[in-house]
UniProtKB/TrEMBL annotation, chain A:
InterPro entries attached to this UniProt entry: ABC_transp_permease (IPR001851)
Main location: membrane
Keyword Membrane recorded: yes
Name by which UniProt lists this protein: ABC transporter permease
Regions that span the bilayer: 30-51, 71-93, 105-123, 129-149, 161-179, 217-235, 269-292, 304-327, 339-361
Key words of the record: Cell membrane, Membrane, Transmembrane, Transmembrane helix
Signal peptide: none
Source superkingdom: Bacteria
Membrane topology: Multi-pass membrane protein
Compartment(s): Cell membrane
UniProtKB/TrEMBL annotation, chain B:
Residue runs in coiled coils: none
Name listed for the protein in its UniProt record: ABC transporter ATP-binding protein
Domain ABC transporter residues, every copy: 8-234, 302-546
GO molecular function, a single term: ATP binding
Keywords, alphabetical: ATP-binding, Nucleotide-binding
Organism field: Streptomyces atroolivaceus
Annotated transmembrane regions: none
Domain of life where this protein originates: Bacteria
Presence of the UniProt keyword tRNA processing in the record: no
Region Disordered, annotated ranges: 253-294, 544-564
TrEMBL record, chain C:
Main location: membrane
Protein's name according to its UniProt entry: ABC transporter permease
Topology term for the membrane: Multi-pass membrane protein
Keywords, in A-Z order: Cell membrane, Membrane, Transmembrane, Transmembrane helix
InterPro entries attached to this UniProt entry: ABC_transp_permease (IPR001851)
Species of origin: Streptomyces atroolivaceus
Subcellular location: Cell membrane
Residues spanning the membrane: 62-83, 90-112, 146-163, 194-213, 219-238, 245-265, 271-290
Lineage: Bacteria, Bacillati, Actinomycetota, Actinomycetes, Kitasatosporales
Length: 370, 564, 307
């Protein structure tokens, strides 16, 4: 008898061999998370002191800004929903092995389409018609915007990382063009003080509030929750989820096994774009109901970061989105109430991401960037 | 430098990857002025040993001495600085650079002089301006060897260097090894082919399961003694096909060696007898019948007509190739790798479209069909690169078996019925004798042999199955798995399926096939009937591009093209 | 009319100088296989440190040194993440930019207060006698500041010193194309990649100083405003080769300067549209719709030695 092959007795995950030097305890997600929060928090404390504010005052302002009022909670939830939508889309594309860096551009495309549709709707449009129209327009435009990258990848083999990155800037630029030109979306210029932004959406195209008049939380929160749950189920429990995973791990083998690889890849990227486009439409359909330059304010990039931090888990997408959503709103109050620059929160957040990235992203992408 | 000290001395070398022991307490002494062979089946730890010597992998325990002084490389640069040159199993050439630029990467002083010296001393010619990505594998291998020799190494380590070489190329390479040893340096030749060992080696060390199972001067170690050390059971227990895959068929890897008279050893007796026996067992009575049926039908299981394929760079990979595989027939394609076999498989698998010609399965045109349509029509494909094309290592075994047929496993209309998948997979595992930790085990946790059995089981489960195309079906498998794969292929043929086997192991094709054609520069030459007594020699000649009608002695004066 | 063209060209070159400086480093880094999206952050930190140093010492030269040091420090962080820890280059790059934006904004609140950074010691143009009066090209090329001339020199040295013909350039290409092979040839893969990122940081820091000390003599929040990303885009549009990258930088500069020259030329051009143009061009270039394009195979793939 030949001896049994060594691997049989010891089935070891193939990727484990990659990191042996750093103690596994240090690499455990919980340890990493706690350490990152502690380190970033310490830096935050230093920043607060540097601005000449007492830690207690700053903390109160931060908490006040996050949970102090139903207004604070509501707007934090809206931000979290936008991030969660983008991150959900990112996760789907990532499952198929694609990295969608283009959330920002897709968000812009979605917002652009939503504003175009919304502002052409008659003033008396019923909400049951107006809201879905605006949201669907955002979805379609975002999907199409991502579709450009998908098509270039399928046809010419261009890396989606680079194309989606470039399309971000084009998307942001197009929003600027649209809100600067009266022939496009700019509101009628009546005086030199007319802002370069679109006319406001009619009543029937605005997202309904869900938390009473006090809270700005809108239906997008519900939509984001539903999207995340449905996506989670599809990825985990359906044939489509398994096919996406297979394509993500090995396009060559998947093709051999008869999976429509190009369709799955392009489709997942388009889905990511549609989710970001939906988020963009929501941003336009939330007060002040206009499309303005820089309305995306980096949500697309933050959403990408949320998606990467969540590492494929939709529960984590929800958790990280909430954290980021609340932190951002708390930071605004930090500046208003405690005189600490809001950029402190930006710094703390980015350090948090860098710490986690340093510890955990020892290349999960299978070298397919080129 | 102490001349009495051995060139390389390894003691107590141990290396684990995760929970897998790749090397355990390995001792090895390479005397200077010798060619030392390291033998073992795939997975025995040979490559890990090379990586340790080359500085790519740090050992967990144990020490190395180089010409008497301690040697502990921490990176490949250390090995190079110590005078060790490696020729890796997978090429170490940057494909986008030219040959000359790849040489310049070594940052050696007076490169032109060194190139000239290697050319003169070893007769190794190179076109320095050729881009590596455009070179055939044989030339790349030659480039790799020249690259190693440019450094004038004290120790040359070659890891499975003959895998991509034809018989002539192998000969030239082994001759080069001898010449290096005779100049006082040392060569470590890592291989799993006994024929090469017998022709070029002075001493051998055999690895099995990461441990040294034996070794010594080759004068005292005839193949009959090496085989049990390699595989852990006596040589006599192997049938000729299995023996062929490890190059045990004595001069098996050098078909023209006999004709040219240059072979160092030529074990006469047992080999032809063994083959005759194998051919007998390979053709059970049942086989003739489907073949007869085929004659009655006009269509073939698989039919290629004037198929031409171009590579990305515009060169021709397949040139008006025509091929028929009848029902129940096993057709082999031999040849040095890189002569169009990979493109042929890609063409059959549907990942490459021909510029001209037609592919028919059972009379049905599949020239431009998608892989899915091919599977439905009954064309099974076992790709050469198992881990990248054959399966998805990160998914479960059950997922790998049924990925193309997930629609059958539905729950509540939309959800995937994993339990039903696992049940179905379980019966496949049992039926094919696949050793895995259940259907939920990750594909990557299986041994190479069991992975291959899963791939084969999946393709054989196609219904209908008109034709099965398998590339290098037993590469990297241990002896037991080779036997299982061969018998599955024979069974499929016996059931009326046409089978096409592409393999670089000529001995394997000789025992398995009814007909063998030879791929040479994008053409298919032959066919040759493996039952003919001079089949091996004729195929060897065809691999060098000789015409089918001119077999035998006329090739004596042939310059071994692949390496010159 | 010719005055307008002259203005267009010299404006274009002026805008292209920081771009050229940063892309000459980024080109090298990407050829070695590391994508630094953080060029933007490196430039921003450079500009901030340059302004701070010049303001604190009253000497623009000290500002340049500070910018250089800040760029190097920031690049060391990026290199630690993407080369040593093998973290995802895209996420760390983008996040590092957010960090830089946050840190410099915070810093300018704390250090400068209101208006202090509106006027910092800087460099004045030094016309090259004779040459600067050549029509069109004269004012464009020969009326730079000392830092501007240094930028030309640095870009030229990097382009020539690391061309494929030199052994250094060859090594960089091999490392970016196939790190494992390069390692087996004895090339120090990680050291070269680390150094390439540091170099990108140094030149990007200089580019930031050029913005703050040569152009406006001031620092304002987000003064780079995407020029760093544009530098990365120029490398992509230049298809990872030196000359096309140079052309891309110049073209991007002229496209920007067209915004200001357009009214004088009687053209009605949307300014945002011109801002967007470089990205569209890069998109066309990288898609192979304009010429053939091929990124280094190892771009964004970290190197880990192993069997």
């Amino acid at each position: 008898m030949s001896p049994p092959p060594l691997t049989l007795s010891a089935p070891a995950p193939a990727l484990r061999t990659a990191h042996t030097r750093i103690a596994p305890v240090l690499r455990h997600p919980v340890t990493v998370g706690v350490l990152a929060v502690v380190l970033a928090g310490a830096v935050g404390l230093g920043l607060v002191k540097g601005a000449g504010t007492g830690p207690a005052v700053a903390w109160d302002a931060l908490v006040e800004g996050m949970f102090g009022s139903s207004y604070a909670v509501g707007s934090s939830l809206n931000s979290a929903a936008v991030l969660a939508l983008i991150a959900t889309g990112f996760t789907v594309a990532h499952r198929a092995g694609l990295v969608n860096v283009g959330g920002e551009g897709q968000l812009c495309a979605g917002g652009l389409a939503a504003a175009a549709v919304g502002t052409t709707l008659p003033a008396g449009v019923p909400a049951a018609l107006g809201v879905p129209l605006v949201l669907v327009a955002g979805c379609v435009a975002g999907g199409a915007w991502a579709g450009i990258a998908g098509r270039l990848r399928a046809r010419r083999g261009t890396s989606e990382v680079i194309t989606t990155l470039l399309l971000n800037f084009v998307g942001v630029g197009l929003v600027s063009v649209a809100v600067h030109e009266e022939a496009l979306l700019r509101q009628p210029v009546t005086s030199s003080e007319t802002l370069p932004q679109s006319a406001p959406l009619p009543e029937g195209a605005r997202l309904p509030l869900i938390g009473g008049v006090e809270s700005p939380a809108t239906a997008i929160v519900v939509i984001a929750v539903v999207a995340a749950v449905v996506t989670g189920v599809v990825l985990r429990h359906t044939a489509v989820g398994l096919r996406l995973r297979s394509v993500g791990h090995s396009p060559a083998a998947s093709a051999r096994l008869g999976l429509p690889v190009v369709r799955l890849e392009t489709g997942s990227l388009a889905f990511a774009g549609a989710a970001a486009g939906l988020a963009g439409a929501a941003l336009v359909a939330i007060a002040p109901y206009v499309l303005a330059e820089h309305f995306s304010s980096g949500y697309g990039f933050s959403g990408l970061v949320v998606g990467l931090l969540a590492r494929g888990s939709l529960t984590a997408v929800a958790a990280v989105s909430l954290l980021f959503g609340f932190l951002t709103n708390g930071g605004i109050n930090l500046q208003l109430a405690a005189g600490v620059p809001a950029s402190s929160v930006q710094i703390v957040q980015s350090l948090l991401v860098l710490f986690v990235a340093a510890a955990m992203f020892t290349t999960t992408r299978n070298g397919r960037a080129s | 430098m102490n001349t009495a000290a051995p060139a390389l001395e390894i003691s107590g070398l141990t290396k684990s990857f995760g929970t897998t022991r790749a090397l355990e307490e390995v001792d090895l002494v390479v005397e200077s002025g010798t060619v030392h062979c390291v033998l073992g089946e795939n997975g025995a730890g040979k490559s890990t040993l090379c990586h340790v010597v080359g500085g790519s992998v740090a050992p967990d325990a144990g020490g190395l001495r180089l010409y008497g002084s301690p040697y502990a490389p921490r990176r490949p640069a250390d090995a190079l600085a110590a005078g060790i040159a490696m020729v890796h199993q997978h090429f170490s050439l940057v494909p986008t650079l030219t040959v000359g630029e790849n040489m310049r990467l070594l940052r050696l002083r007076d490169l032109p002089r060194r190139v000239a010296r290697v050319r003169e001393e070893y007769g190794l010619e190179l076109d320095l301006d050729a881009r590596v990505s455009e070179l055939p594998v044989g030339v790349r291998q030659r480039t790799e060897i020249v690259k190693a020799l440019l450094r004038e190494p004290r120790l040359l380590v070659l890891d499975e260097p003959t895998g991509v070489l034809g018989p002539a190329g192998t000969d030239a390479l082994l001759a080069t090894c001898r010449r290096i040893a005779e100049s006082g340096h040392a060569v470590v030749l890592v291989t799993h082919k006994l024929g090469e060992v017998a022709r070029a080696g002075d001493a051998a060390t055999v690895l099995r399961g990461g441990r040294v199972s034996g070794g010594g001067p080759l004068a005292e170690l005839p193949p009959e003694r090496l085989v049990p050390l390699m595989i852990g059971r006596p040589a006599g227990s192997l049938d000729a096909g299995l023996a062929g895959t490890i190059g045990l068929a004595a001069d098996g890897d050098s078909p023209e060696a006999g004709a040219s008279g240059s072979g160092k050893t030529r074990a006469g007796g047992p080999e032809p007898a063994g083959r005759a026996l194998a051919v007998g067992t390979a053709e059970p009575g049942g086989r003739a019948e489907p073949g007869g049926k085929a004659a009655a039908r006009v269509t073939q299981a698989l039919r290629l007509r004037d198929v031409s394929v171009r590579r990305a760079d515009g060169t021709s990979a397949l040139d008006e190739v025509s091929l028929d595989v009848g029902y129940g027939e096993i057709v082999g394609i031999a040849g040095v790798e890189g002569n169009g076999q990979s493109e042929l498989m890609a063409l059959l698998g549907g990942s490459l479209a021909p510029v001209a010609g037609r592919v028919e399965l059972d009379g049905r045109d599949l020239t431009r069909a998608a892989p899915r349509e091919r599977s439905r029509a009954g064309l099974g494909v076992v790709p050469e690169d198992r881990l990248h094309e054959g399966c998805v290592p990160q998914l479960r075994v059950a997922d790998n078996l049924f990925l193309g047929r997930l629609d059958r496993f539905r729950r509540h209309g939309v959800l995937l019925d994993r339990r039903a998948m696992d049940r179905a997979a379980d019966s496949v595992l049992t039926g094919h004798g696949i050793r895995a930790d259940g259907p939920g085990a990750l594909m990557s946790s299986l041994s190479g042999g069991n992975q291959q059995k899963v791939v084969l089981a999946r393709e054989l489960a196609l219904d209908p199955l008109i034709c099965l195309a398998a590339a290098q079906p037993t590469r990297g498998l241990d002896i037991g798995a080779v036997g299982a794969v061969h018998s599955r292929i024979r069974d499929a043929a016996a059931a009326g399926t046409g089978v096409l086997v592409v393999s670089s192991e000529l001995s394997e094709l000789l025992v398995l096939c009814d007909r063998i054609t030879v791929a040479y520069r994008g053409k298919l030459l032959g066919p040759v009937d493996p039952a003919e007594p001079d089949a091996r020699e004729r195929i060897g000649a065809l691999m060098l591009g000789a015409r089918a009608s001119r077999p035998g002695p006329e090739n004596t004066g042939h310059t071994p093209e692949a390496l010159r | 009319m010719s005055a307008v063209v002259e203005e267009l060209v010299s404006g274009g070159v002026r805008l292209a100088v920081p771009l050229l400086l940063a892309s000459s480093g980024e080109l090298l880094s990407e050829r070695a296989g590391v994508l630094n999206l953080s060029v933007e952050g490196m430039m921003l930190t450079g500009a901030f440190a340059g302004a701070t140093g010049a303001l604190a010492s009253g000497n623009a030269g000290v500002g340049v040194l500070a910018a250089l040091a800040a760029g190097l420090l920031f690049a060391a962080l990026q290199a630690l993440l993407s080369v040593v820890l093998r973290a995802d280059q895209i996420v760390t790059g983008i996040t590092a930019n957010v960090l830089a934006l946050g840190a410099t904004t915070y810093g300018s609140r704390v250090f400068f207060g209101d208006g202090a950074a509106d006027s910092v010691p800087g460099f004045d143009p030094i016309p090259v006698p004779g040459l600067h009066s050549v029509p069109v090209l004269g004012p464009a090329l020969f009326e730079q500041t000392a830092l501007g001339y240094a930028a030309f020199a640095v870009a030229a040295v990097l382009a020539l010193g690391f061309s494929r013909r030199t052994s250094w350039g060859l090594a960089v290409d091999a490392i970016g194309e196939d790190a494992t092979t390069a390692d087996r040839c004895g090339l120090p893969v990680r050291a070269v990649r680390f150094a390439a990122v540091l170099l990108t940081g140094a030149v990007s820091g200089l580019a930031g100083a050029q913005l703050a000390l040569s152009e406006v003599h001031a620092f304002s929040d987000n003064i780079t405003g995407g020029i760093g990303y544009l530098a990365v885009v120029a490398v992509i549009a230049g298809r990872w080769r030196a000359w096309p990258t140079l052309v891309a930088c110049l073209f991007f500069g002229v496209a920007q300067s067209l915004q200001f020259a357009a009214p004088a030329l009687g053209l009605h051009l949307s300014a945002p549209l011109l801002t967007t143009l470089p990205y569209v061009i890069a998109l066309l270039a990288v898609s192979g719709l304009v010429g053939r394009s091929r990124a280094p195979s190892g771009l964004t793939v970290p190197f880990l030695r192993g069997a």
